[in-house]
Design brief:
heterodimer, A: alpha/beta, Rossmann fold, seven-stranded mixed beta sheet, globular, disordered C terminus, B: about 260 residues, alpha/beta, 2 domains, six-stranded mixed beta sheet, four-stranded antiparallel beta sheet, 10 strands, lyase (chain A)
C-alpha cells in the first residue's frame, strides 16, 4: 500500500479513500445498479470539501476510479470553474489519473447540473453530484413516509404537484430537477440538471451514478434504462431551452447560458457546455482556414 | 339481501387494562349506512380504526368482499393492498377536515389526487371531474384554484367529502363528519351526505355521538358502551324503542329542539 511518506499520492491511499470505504461504496453502487432509481443508503465520509460542493459525487468517483481512467469534471457544463478545477486537481494528486476537458476522451465524467451535449458511450460513466436525492421531499416532509411511498410505488402526490403547476402557471414550471420514472418503477430526482437534459438520460449507453454526500444516498441508472419525465397526456413534457443561438459557436441546439456583458442591459447567450462549444469553434476554424478571413485579430482564438 | 361488504367477528382490543373492544361483531351490506353511537371512550373510534385496517385487533377477523365477490381478510392483505383499497374502493372522512385535506394544495388538486393516484393522466379530464364534484358539494367552481385554508369550516368538510367520493368508493368510513360545525352548517352537510350516499349507493360506516345525525343518515345503529355493542337494530326501532338501559339514557339525554 502507499501510506508511507514519499508515496506517489502524498501519503494518501490511491484515490484518497481507504480500501474498506471504497468497498462499502461499491457494494452500495452494485445494489443501486441492480434496482434502478432506488436510493441506497451508504456511510458517506467527511471529504476535504464542503457539503454542497460534490461530496457525494467525489466519493462515488473515488470508489470507481482506476489508474488508467481519464477524468473530466464539469460544473454547470463548464470545465474551468472553481469546483470543476479543484476536483480534477484533487484526483490528479491523490490518484495520479489524467484529467481532460474533452468529453469524448473521458472514461469517467463527474458532473454538477448538466449532462454533456456530446452523446456518451458504453465505455463512459457519468457521476452526478446530488444535493437532494428525494424527489418527494417538498411534498411530503416525513422521510419514513416517502420511503413507504417508494416501496408501494404510491406516486399520485407527484402528479398533484404537476397539476398545481399547470393550474397556477398554465404549464409545468419545474425547469430543473424535473422528476423522472426509472424503468417504470421508481420515481427519481435527476439531480438539479435542467429539464432540457432529461431526455438524454433515456436509454443512455453510459452508466449513470448519483451520489448525495450530505443525505448519504446513492442511486443509479444502468445503461439503456428507460427514463421518462412525468407529464400529463394533454400537457406533454417539453424540455425548455432559451430561444437563441450561441454567440461563440452558433449552436442552435445546445443548452444556453445567459451572460450579462455590461451594466446597460447588454447580454449574450453562450453554450453552457464549454467543451462542446470550443470543439465547435475549432471545427469551424479548421473547416474555413483563411478563406475570407473576417478580421481574425479581434476573433480571439483562445 | 346480498353478501355483506364488510364482515367483522369476535373483535377484541385492549389498551392495558382498558378494554376498547370486547367481542364486537358487525356487518355492513352494500349501499347501507350504519351508525356507531356511544359516549366518548366507548370504543367507537377504535372500532372504526380496526375495521379500516389502521389498527390491528388482539383477536378477531375483518373480511372485506371485493366487487368480484372474493372475501379478503383486511388485516392479512398487506400494506400495499390496503393502501390501494383506501384510494379506490374505500374512503375515509375525518372529523377534522385538515387531517383529510392537503392544505397547501388547491381545491382542484385535492379532489384530483385520488384520480391521479389511480392513474388518471389527463389534466383536462381531471379538472373537469374536479369541477363537477365541486358543484355537487355546493362549492363555487370558480374557487377550484383556491387553497382550502381560505375556505370556511363547512366548505372544507364538503371539499373533503368531494375528494373522498370522486373515485366512487363502495365503502366510506366517516369519523364524526359534522363535529365542530355550527348547527345550520351541520344540517346542510347531513342533507348533502344523505343525498350523495343515496345517489351513489355507497355503504357508509358512520361514527358519531350525535343521535340526530345518526337518525337522519343511518339505516341501522349500533350502540357501544365500554367496548361492547349493547344494542343494535334498525335506526327507528333503536331510537324509538330502546331496550338497553344505556340506550334509553342516551336517547333521553338528547335535548329536544
Amino acid at each position: 500500500m502507499s501510506h508511507e511518506p514519499g508515496s506517489p499520492f502524498g501519503g494518501y491511499n490511491f484515490a484518497y479513500l481507504d480500501e474498506n470505504t471504497k468497498r462499502m461504496i461499491r457494494r452500495a453502487l452494485l445494489k443501486a445498479v441492480a434496482i434502478p432509481g432506488h436510493q441506497v443508503p451508504f456511510g458517506a465520509r467527511e471529504m476535504p470539501l464542503p457539503y454542497g460542493w460534490g461530496t457525494g459525487g467525489i466519493q462515488v468517483t473515488a470508489a470507481i476510479l482506476g489508474p488508467r481512467d481519464v477524468l473530466k469534471v464539469i460544473d454547470q457544463g463548464a470545465d474551468d470553474t472553481t469546483n470543476a478545477v479543484s476536483i480534477r486537481r484533487f484526483f490528479s494528486r491523490v490518484a495520479g489519473v489524467r484529467g481532460t476537458t474533452r468529453t469524448a476522451e473521458a472514461t469517467i465524467i463527474q458532473t454538477r447540473h448538466r449532462i454533456p451535449e456530446t452523446p456518451l458511450t458504453e465505455a463512459q460513466t457519468l457521476v452526478y453530484q446530488v444535493p437532494m436525492p428525494e424527489p418527494l421531499f417538498r411534498l411530503e416532509p416525513r422521510l419514513a413516509e416517502t420511503r413507504r411511498m417508494h416501496a408501494l410505488a404510491d406516486y399520485g402526490l407527484m402528479h398533484v404537484k404537476l397539476y398545481e403547476d399547470i393550474a397556477r402557471h398554465g404549464h409545468v414550471s419545474t425547469a430543473y430537477s424535473y422528476p423522472v420514472m426509472v424503468g417504470g418503477r421508481y420515481l427519481m430526482s435527476p439531480s438539479p440538471i435542467p429539464a432540457f437534459d432529461n431526455p438524454k438520460m433515456h436509454r443512455m449507453p453510459a452508466l449513470q451514478l448519483f451520489g448525495a454526500g450530505r443525505e448519504k444516498k446513492i442511486y443509479a441508472v444502468p445503461p439503456y434504462t428507460e427514463v421518462r419525465s412525468l407529464d400529463f397526456e394533454d400537457h406533454p413534457f417539453r424540455p425548455h431551452r432559451a430561444d437563441g443561438c450561441c454567440a461563440l459557436c452558433g449552436s442552435t441546439t445546445s443548452y444556453l447560458d445567459e451572460v450579462l456583458t455590461d451594466d446597460r442591459g447588454g447580454r449574450m447567450f453562450v453554450c453552457s457546455d464549454t467543451d462542446y462549444c470550443e470543439e465547435r469553434q475549432e471545427a469551424a476554424a479548421t473547416a474555413a482556414p483563411a478563406s475570407t478571413t473576417p478580421a481574425p485579430e479581434t476573433e480571439g482564438v483562445a | 339481501m346480498s353478501a355483506p361488504l364488510l364482515e367483522a367477528k369476535g373483535l377484541n382490543l385492549a389498551f392495558g387494562a382498558v378494554r376498547a373492544l370486547d367481542d364486537v361483531a358487525i356487518d355492513i351490506h352494500p349501499g347501507e349506512v350504519v351508525a356507531i353511537v356511544g359516549e366518548s371512550g366507548s370504543g367507537k373510534s377504535s372500532l372504526l380504526r380496526v375495521l379500516a385496517g389502521q389498527m390491528r385487533p388482539d383477536a378477531g377477523t375483518v373480511l372485506y368482499r371485493d366487487p368480484a365477490g372474493t372475501a379478503h381478510p383486511v388485516h392479512g392483505m398487506g400494506e400495499a393492498a390496503l393502501r390501494r383499497l383506501m384510494r379506490t374502493d374505500w374512503g375515509f372522512v375525518h372529523q377534522n377536515a385538515r387531517d383529510g385535506l392537503r392544505m397547501g394544495v388547491s381545491a382542484g388538486g385535492n379532489v384530483g389526487e385520488r384520480l391521479m393516484a389511480i392513474g388518471a393522466r389527463h389534466y383536462g379530464g381531471i379538472r373537469e371531474e374536479a369541477t363537477e364534484w365541486l358543484k355537487r358539494v355546493e362549492i363555487d367552481p370558480a374557487r377550484i384554484d383556491h387553497l382550502p385554508r381560505t375556505f370556511s369550516g363547512g366548505m372544507q368538510q364538503r371539499l373533503q367529502i368531494a375528494r373522498t367520493l370522486v373515485t366512487r368508493p363502495r365503502l366510506v368510513f366517516m369519523d364524526e363528519p359534522t363535529g365542530g360545525l355550527d348547527v345550520s352548517v351541520q344540517a346542510r352537510l347531513l342533507d348533502l351526505i344523505r343525498a350523495l350516499v343515496a345517489d351513489l349507493g355507497i355503504a357508509v360506516l358512520l361514527v358519531t355521538h350525535d343521535i340526530a345525525a345518526a337518525r337522519l343518515l343511518a339505516h341501522r345503529i349500533l350502540v357501544m358502551r365500554r367496548g361492547q355493542v349493547v344494542e343494535h337494530g334498525l335506526t327507528d326501532r333503536v331510537l324509538d324503542d330502546p331496550q338497553h338501559p344505556y340506550t334509553q339514557l342516551l336517547v333521553a339525554s338528547v335535548l329536544a329542539a
